Amino acid sequence: MKRTLSLAAVALLCTAVQLSAQDAKMSFFLTSVGPGNGADLGGLAGADAHCATLAEAAGITGKSWHAYLSTAGEHGENARDRIGDGPWFNFEGVMVAQDVTNLHSEDNNLTKATVLDEAGHMVNGRGDDPNRHDILTGSNLDGTTFATGTDTPCGNWTRSDSAGTARVGHFDRTGGGDNPTSWNSAHSSRGCSQEDLRGSGGDGLVYCFAVDAAEGGAFKED
């Protein structure tokens, strides 16, 4: 006997396919949680692994993830040089930046509504309780590291005490600091501990970019 799908079933199927396609396209997200040890992320390698773990848990496979973080010192790295070429899309398939130049310009599409976590959820910003809008970057406005000899990135992301500081950005593009509307270099944190980060409106979160964004990826079905 020939069976036909109801309009409701067809709509649900189309929605599922559309969501899967959006997820597969995702190449940028803000972490929903930090490792929980302040700005000690386990260095760049630990931060990258954290991005990959969250992406995998959200069902995004086939991509290589790097955290948007700069390190200082003799072998310091620039965050802008770690994240590939773009373009980058959020969970909903919305482009947040075309390339590295666009990302660090006033024309990027980073807002509270577009900077979603790995599961497509909005993150608390200024005015929400608790405020989590301070995002670890250790970077200048152009995505480069600070001068050699500074400890701005909390011992290159290995410290969780109150002695150092970390440069943070405001993902919701609002607040206080030297550059309150900057997504990557708004001000410095009070320290490197979890309490210090939370005290100035953060939670140890980082931006994650797929370095192979243009190559696409695979969505893992349940």
Question: What is the compact description of this entry?
Answer:
The chain has 222 residues and is of the alpha+beta class.
Question: How would you describe the overall organization of this protein?
Answer:
The protein is built from 5 helices and 10 strands. With 222 residues, the protein is of the alpha+beta class. The chain has a single domain, classed as Mannose-Binding Protein A, Chain A (Roll). Strands 1, 3, 6, 7, 8 and 9 form a 6-stranded mixed beta sheet that branches. It has a two-stranded antiparallel sheet with strand order 2-10. Strand 4 and strand 5 form a beta hairpin. It is globular. The N terminus and C terminus are likely disordered.
By secondary-structure content and strand pairing, the structural class works out as alpha+beta
CA-based gyration radius:
18 Å
Regarding quaternary structure, what we see is single chain
Low-confidence stretches: 1-22, 217-222
Shape: globular
CATH level-four homologous superfamily name: Mannose-Binding Protein A, subunit A
